[in-house]
Amino acid sequence: MTIKQNISKIDVQLYQIKEYCSERQAFFFVHNIVKSITKADKTFRTSLSDMKTLSLYYKSGETFNFQGYEVEKLEIVLNSEPYIFNSAKQSAKTKQAQVPISVISIDKISLSKAITFHLKYRVIQCFKVVCLSDKVIIVNNTAMGLLIYSIMGSLEREIEYLHGDIQGLKEPQNRNSRLKVKDITVISKDCIAVMRKNDILNVNVENGYVKSISNSRNMYFCRRLCYCKDFLYLTDCNGKITVMDLAGNIVKTINYEKSFHDSIILSYVVQNNKIFILSKVLICLDLNGQLLWQAKTDEHFVKTHTQMSVDNFGNCYIPSAVSNNIKVISNNGKQSNLLLSVTDGIRYPRAVYFDTTNNRLIVMTLYGICTVFDVNFRD
Fold this sequence. Notes:
Layout: H1 2-20, H2 23-50, E1 52-66, E2 69-82, H3 92-98, E3 109-118, E4 129-132, E5 135-139, E6 145-150, E7 155-160, H4 172-179, E8 183-186, E9 191-195, E10 199-204, E11 210-215, E12 224-228, E13 231-235, E14 240-245, E15 250-255, E16 267-271, E17 274-278, E18 281-286, E19 291-296, E20 309-310, E21 316-320, E22 325-329, E23 336-340, E24 349-355, E25 360-365, E26 369-377
InterPro entries: 6-blade_b-propeller_TolB-like, Quinoprotein_ADH-like_sf
């Protein structure tokens, strides 16, 4: 954790240098950093080469007579060998995690239905759903609160967070507009981040405690929110992604070609150092904004009312309420399979969420039906 924090600080400093220093100042600063890193790397490698494995043992020698007793002579042996870092002793789980899933693996994906339950509201206005441990969190029908369900379908609580900063907004219409949720994302085992018109909130779903992460009018242009490895990624429709830490500090910005996608971003996921954006096409970018691949999708989407998800291997799950199906697109964009259709009892799916911890797919429909599937990756 300390190493990750140090890397984050370096990233922030480099961003600040690029923004506020002259090119000459930035050059000398980075040059000195490179020299320091090179020196540290050389010292580290020298230390590694000097490390050895020592083993101390004894071995039997010849026997001799001592005052009438037969005594065995013992020899103490000290053995020294170079220390081997990449030990072959790895757990089966670690080995499995290091093996990349093949592209054809989407043919091996199978689902088994675990539970189906009806939501409090039978017609859903806002289609945002996430899974946190054994809880399903959904934006409520006013789009100003959260519904917290157990994974088995019982409503545990409803959180209303109407106490945000609404100074100067006397008209109810403006007030409600300010408080409506744009997007939600999981940020820890107990908390989610909630993006509204002008702020981002940290909401603890266990105790309902709410605190502010960021409060800025610049949030108005942000459309989607996602969390990945200690940072929030906010995107607009103009080819810019803002990276922010959980204290609200802007770390950097990522720019990409707007022509990669349609003007309306339907859904957005950042996972495993990749950025997935769904519009009329599905695109995959690296964290520098470079296009890795793009894939065709079902064009029968209802604009702004679709939520896709991504599994641990980078396969994308996309619902279509018009076509009444859910498709999965492989992690290189070259393959697409029909995962669920109307024959599986799926009607008007609008949002899916892949629980990467428990390999579960949560599907929410237009008419307030939530279905939880267990996902299996067959060998």
